[in-house]
Amino acid sequence: MLKSARKMEKDPEGRMPLVEHLRELRNRLAKSVFAIVVVAIIAAFFYKDIIQLFQHPIQKAVQCDVDLAQLSHKSDHKPCGNITMSGLMKPFSLAVKVSVMSGLVVASPIWLYQLWAFLAPGLHRHEKKYALGFVAAGVPLFAAGGWFAYLILPKAARMLIDFTPGGVTNLLPLDEVIDLVVRLVVVFGLAFELPLVLIMLNFGGVLTGRRMLSWWRGMIMGVTVFSAVATPTADAFSMLALAGPMVVLYFIAVGIALLNDKRRRRRDPDAGLSDDEASQLDLTPQAIGEAEPVPALPEHPEDRTAHRGGYDDVT
């Protein structure tokens, strides 16, 4: 039975020996792998339904209504494709791939929590609060990006299949179709994390909202180039479908950063200064107030010496 290293003796600052760190890492990895394996085994019983979920958008957009024999005798048909599989071991390998992929996705809350539990003791209280907020926002953003990719996939597939020359039958291997869908979903999901990274840098004091806003021209160009390179498909529709939401999310992140900078300046006027920049001094004259009365010295010199404690001068 795996025992957590931190249950033995908790340090209030999260410190522990290197051996205990390694034991803790081993336990967290074991729990994560166990969760992924359990979910993958369960998904193996439903892998056909999962494949149908990925296959359906492309199949609905490009599937031919006739079989290959009828298709070979038609010369005026609209370009379409037939999803196929080749090889005796292909169905089994595809089932394993889909099951493992489903395990990674469905069990992500568990292994993300294990990663968080391993890193959290080394963070300060405000860092834990920010990290939890970023994780909580990152999951919906990734899901939104994946859903958006799944939404535009039929249109992209239809545009790509239209490039098929006349008199040519297009055969679409099922494993390549699944890989294309997964890659598109992952790319869109990771791209939607861009505003989260910018906000994280702003909350950490690395970037200001004004500096982020000054990059808007280069950011739009960079997002466009990234979309052209990152999208698995080569059509302009997929590139613009990825670049458009990223630009909108970028400006949303800039707005949040500007509000955070305003809040930070309200709490600390010198928060925006660099390490080698001096803060402004308040040189406004202020009232001195009433003078403190000084006791008068005796008139005779002998009395003054006695008043000074026996010394004949001020010292």
TrEMBL record:
Pfam families according to UniProt: TatC
InterPro entries the record matches: TatC
Originating species: Streptomyces orinoci (Streptoverticillium orinoci)
Record PANTHER family: SEC-INDEPENDENT PROTEIN TRANSLOCASE PROTEIN TATC, SEC-INDEPENDENT PROTEIN TRANSLOCASE PROTEIN TATC, CHLOROPLASTIC-RELATED
Record protein name field: Sec-independent protein translocase protein TatC
Subcellular location: Cell membrane; Membrane
Function: Part of the twin-arginine translocation (Tat) system that transports large folded proteins containing a characteristic twin-arginine motif in their signal peptide across membranes. Together with TatB, TatC is part of a receptor directly interacting with Tat signal peptides.
Biased composition (Basic and acidic residues): 299-315
Topology in the lipid bilayer: Multi-pass membrane protein
Assembly information from the UniProt record: The Tat system comprises two distinct complexes: a TatABC complex, containing multiple copies of TatA, TatB and TatC subunits, and a separate TatA complex, containing only TatA subunits. Substrates initially bind to the TatABC complex, which probably triggers association of the separate TatA complex to form the active translocon.
Entry-linked NCBIfam families: tatC
Coiled coil: none
Assigned keywords, A-Z: Cell membrane, Membrane, Protein transport, Translocation, Transmembrane, Transmembrane helix, Transport
Annotated TM spans: 29-47, 94-119, 131-153, 180-201, 213-230, 236-259
Family from the record: Belongs to the TatC family.
Disordered: region residues: 266-315
Keyword Repeat recorded: no
